[in-house]
Write a structure and sequence with these properties.
This protein has a 4-stranded antiparallel sheet. The chain has a 3-stranded antiparallel sheet with strand order 5-8-9, with no helix packed on it. The radius of gyration is 21 Å and the shape is elongated. It has helices at 17-26, 28-32, 59-66, 69-81, 172-181; strands spanning 4-11, 39-44, 49-56, 87-92, 111-116, 121-124, 130-133, 148-155, 160-167. The longest helix has 13 residues, at 69-81. The protein has 2 domains: 4-92, Alpha-Beta Plaits (2-Layer Sandwich), CATH 3.30.70.100; 111-181, no CATH class. With 182 residues, the chain is α+β, with helices and mostly antiparallel strands.
Amino acid sequence: MTKKGLYVTLKAKPGKEQELTRVLTEGLPVVEAEPATVAWFAIRLDAGTFAIFDAFPDDAGREAHLSGQLASTLMAKASELLAEPPTLEKADVLAAKLPNLHASTGGAGSETIIPLQVGSELRIRNNGEIILGNPEIELAPESTAADAVLAYRYNSSPGEHTLRLLDPVADRRHLKHHRRDD
């Protein structure tokens, strides 16, 4: 569950907006490798003002992020790129809506359980995002309407996707019913 947040405001020096934009966009793969950073947004508020919003399950995750590679890079370039020191505001997350893919909270390399039906369309983007078109069932860790169940793991460091067949027929009763109606 997402309980902690961080909001950072960055004001670029005049003429350094593009370079700050580059540093922030190049930070995405770095943050994707942080298991406890469950959400990360780099945004532009106006021509020279930028912000970062991050979300974490706990204080330890937030502190790990603050001592991580992207924070170090930004602080090392602060005098060159920023008109003033960044402002950091630690926040408690009251409510959150994040994609619910039923992944374990193990972070990078954790598995997502994907029930499939005959005719399902499964697409996995390069960043590990799962897009599933199941004609009758929703993405859920257990489904009695599934014809098969896959385990999916994405590791952003090498950019590796792994699919493992967990159960070729998740519910034998469904198979009899499904095949009878075909």
